[in-house]
Structure formats: structure tokens, C-alpha cells
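Following up on my earlier message about G4F. Here are the inputs again, as you asked, copied directly from the submission form:
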Amino acid sequence: MKKAFITGISGQDGSYLAEYLLNLGYEVHGIVRRNSVPEHQQSRIDFHRENIHVYYGDLTDASGLERLLKKIQPDEIYNLGAQSHVRISFDVPNYTVQTNALGVLNILEAYRNACPEAKFYQASSSEMFGSSVDEDGFQRETTRMTPVSPYGCSKVFAYNLVHNYRNAYKLHAANGILFNHESPRRGSNFVTNKVVKGAVLIKKGLAKKLEMGNMDSFRDWGHSKDYVRAMHMIINHDIADDFVVATGTTHSVREMTDYVFSKLGLDFNEFVVQNPIYLRPEELPYLRGDCSKLKKTFNWAPEYTFETMMDEMIDFWMKTL
Ligand code: G4F
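Thanks, got it. Here's what our run produced:
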């Protein structure tokens, strides 16, 4: 039985990855941060609580990470833990860098000292590309990285550290460069789930308006379930390498909002208002990923389309609220 260790196990991706690996017969271990409301801490993994080994841990706590990795001796380490909200990274830049950049240094050191035979996956992000787009309108593994947020800068630092540890210490450390990925489990302060939840509240007469930030940026939105399959392929590749995971299609926030409200028989123009608190000091205007390398290497293809993913989220909130 293979053993996996997941940081960020209680997040959207961590919970889907834990389920995916349990179904493959893995023994799954993961860390959660201490939270003053314990009920909020593990809600996404409650269903599997009896099958998952959960420990308190934090990427900023180097000695705790090393102690756990020495004890567990995992075959695969997935580093999905992060301060993952881009706008909030402008409010808490120091914390974001401590967790997303120096936290990766901590877990790479723990990995090198405790279980160097294991394989390592780093959750890298399309936010690293920032304002760079290739001439054909895509971002890919070779696109220049010019991040435009403390979050993006922290992820570039971590991405480069993974290269350095791979080369310097001959570790099997890989980067998945994931474009935006969503699901009903997405935090409702990220734009897709915020829009779906807000529109359903309006549809049910429980809210009158929805406050948003910039509606003119474009994102390449895929489904988290499709992307955790890619993570498992990437970590298990013979060679530790870097792969873009994306759908290759892009939509503006405005188009996405229009799709959701229209599905519910509403005109978003009547309900959506801009509130400057949701604007970012610097915006990343356009993302569209080219994942040819991933497709060619693993024959990976997403099962969800933009529409089936958004429909699943609408169904979820219609049933939940
Ligand atoms: O949903 P978002 O907050 O995602 P963002 O900033 O693209 O980051 C996500 O994807 C990255 C991959 O590229 C991940 F690395 C990262 O961890 C995270 O998962 O915002 C998407 C777009 C932005 O342009 C934002 O300005 O939606 C725009 N937006 C407009 N109104 C809003 C809102 N975003 C949020 N969160 N809330 C709004 O009210």
C-alpha cells in the first residue's frame, strides 16, 4: 500500500485528491492548521475522516513537518497548503510569503532530511505568469514569469526552489502549474463560487444584489477533480518535471457571471454592482493555458467543460441554500 502525505488536505484540491488516492488504495495522511472553530477545519474531509490520518501541522513549522515525515515515511508528498487568495495576499503579504515561499523551503528541507526517496509535488500556479502572454495568446511552461501579486511572487520563489532542490539534491520534485480550478467545494470568496452562491441567493429571494470587483479579467477555469488526476500523473512520471494543467479555453468574469445568472433566468445587469474593496492594487488581466505537454505525456483530458462545471456548482447551491 502506497502512502501519501498531503498539506492542505482540508482544502478543495486536498479533499478531492485524498478521495482519489483512497480509491486507488493509498494510505492517506495530511496536516490541518489549528483553528479556533474546529468544525470549520475539516468539513471537506468529514466524509472520509475515518480513513484519513490527520495531524496538526503548519508549513511555517519546520520541525513539526520533519518529525511527521520521519514518522510516516510517505512515498508521495503533495504540497497543496498555501494562503491561496490573491487579493488577500495584498492585505497579508508577509504571512503569504512566510507560508507559500518559506513554507515550501521548510517542507523541502524536511523531505530531503526525512524521506529523500519519496516523490514531491508542488502546487505551482498560473498566477506566476502575471502579465506575460505568448504571442499566440497562451501561457505555457516556457512563458516568462512576471507575477503581479505577493501571492504570485511567493509561488515563483517556491517554483524555483523546487528546481533547485531537484537539481542540487537529485530529488524527484515536480511542479504542476495549475490554472484556475473550481468546484462546489471552492471557497465562496473566489469568484466562480461567489457568483453562483450570490445568484442563487437572489433567485431564492434571499439577497437583492451582488457586489463584485473587476469583471473584465479573463480566466481559464477547469474542474478541481480533473486537476487532481493530473497531479497524480505528474508526481508519478519517471522524470521530475514541470507541467501546465489547463483547459485551453478562457472566459471573462463578465461572461461567467452572465452564464450563471442566465441559467437561473436572471439578467445579471440588474443585480451586480461594483464595490472597489474587491478590486486588486494590480490585476492579472488574462489567463489561457496551453497544456499540450501534459496531454502528450499522459494523454490527460478534462472530463468537465466550463458549462458542466458551472452547472454542477449551480445545482449544489440550489440544493444547499
Ligand atoms: O477567483 P479569483 O479570486 O481567482 P484568482 O485571483 O485568479 O486566483 C485563483 O487562481 C490562481 C491560479 O491562477 C490560484 F493560484 C489562486 O490560488 C486562486 O485559486 O479571481 C478571479 C478573477 C480575478 O481577476 C478577480 O479580480 O475574478 C476577479 N473578481 C471580480 N470580482 C473577483 C471578484 N474575484 C474575487 N475573489 N471576488 C470578487 O468579488
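One observation from looking it over: Residues 3-181+221-245 form a domain with the Rossmann fold fold (CATH 3.40.50.720). Hope that helps, and feel free to reply on this thread.
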